[in-house]
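The instructor's notes for this session suggest beginning with a concrete chain rather than abstract definitions. Hand out the sequence below and ask the class to guess, before any prediction is shown, which regions might be ordered.
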Amino acid sequence: MQNFRQTLYLFLLITLVQSVHARTADFPSSFIFGVASAPGQVEDQLPDMWKEWGENGRIKSWTIEKNSVDRLKFWTEPQVEINLAKKLGAQSFRLGVDWGRVMPERGRFDEAAIDRYRDILKLIKAQNMKVMLTLMHHSVPKWVLKNGGWTNPQTKADFIFFSQRMFKEFAPDVDWWITFNEANVFVINSYVSGLWPPGKQGGVLSLLALGSIRGEAIRALDLMADAHNEIYEWAHAQSPKVKVGVAHNMAHYTARGFIDGISAWFANRTMNWRFPSRIEGKMDFFGFNYYGAEWLKGSGVDIDPAEEYSDAGRAIDVNGLYFLLHEIHRKFPKLEIIITENGIADEGDGIRGAYLVEHLLAVGQAIKDKVPVTGYYYWTLTDNLEWSDGYCPKFGIVGVDRATFGRKTRPSFELFQKIISRHSISEELRILEWAKVIAGQNKDRAFCRGADGITAFDQSVPKKLTSKDWRFTYPRR
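After discussion, reveal the predicted structure:
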């Protein structure tokens, strides 16, 4: 039986070699590999808006998972994650400062919280990792939320006040500053779909932007852009060498038919490009979060049975990353590009390795094409709270026992460790990881998303891999 398996495996490898051109990637020694996280997803002892959202039954699996409120205990035990990142070989650690923890009331700072964040930053620096610090990552203080959140113009002044203090406190230990993580995603889920606090369901009309006529979500998005611009100018007046940018979510919006194509055009224009266009000239780098394609049907997202998806319902589209890297460079030719998030929910770890390899091959090719991509941050190190999706999607290259908080590395951890160490991807590595994908076809895997592309599940349901070949093909742009 073992000889048969070995023969079958060799046949599989030979078939793969014959059907796929040799593809490799070599990254410059200056290229930064890192991991990314967010305070609302990993910190314990955090009485934030997400804790209330979970207690109100708005976060999937919150009530059935153990120790939901503790998330990953990054506040009290940050060294666990930091040591894992060091073991991985990560050269940079992306984390955030929770605005509400540091500023529990308007105009009042919690000095002990500031000191604690400083200690965490120094723990990271002590491991010879660079720091990328996010100032707002999908969470606002509860007092801001109560006063209208980013639909209230006062929030801009409050956020600038908070941000300026953070720059003053942490500048010696921060290498890159992120003002906003995915401002576009935040306004969609907070003011359009109602999936996130405060739960407003404004619909498509809240995304209306016709001259001075702007919907609520667009007004909030533009207010965040204005805040970023003012923070950028202030920071550079204090220190001309400071590096300030954003982590902007972009998707490859696609559709099957003409009518759906109109929706894809609108989404691309609004979601991908409105925010960057409003902060043009006020970025030292373009931070770019990419998870895949969004197949649109009408005004919503569709789960297409012909496509392959992550456990979280994100359509895998490696070529889309390549397209968007070139498009970003075309629009902002003088900016370096940092992939501030890229990753996949894959509880069984059967496709994560190929996902990581193929996306990095796309990055490597873009670099060969003279696109100035200087870093890549994997989302995420350890399974955490995925906002209103709860604990069902498993994005980590490290699993966690939620009863004990014990960690267990997945095979993809060792793979990423190898890639970082070598700063390259070999043809053999690519073949081996794709062989795992083929071996998993027609077998059940976890899935945490409904057929409408929106509904999330408390617990995963079985779904089979498709036979689609989603590897990077170096498409003609």
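Then share the key points. The chain has one domain: 2-464. The chain is about 40% helix and 20% strand.
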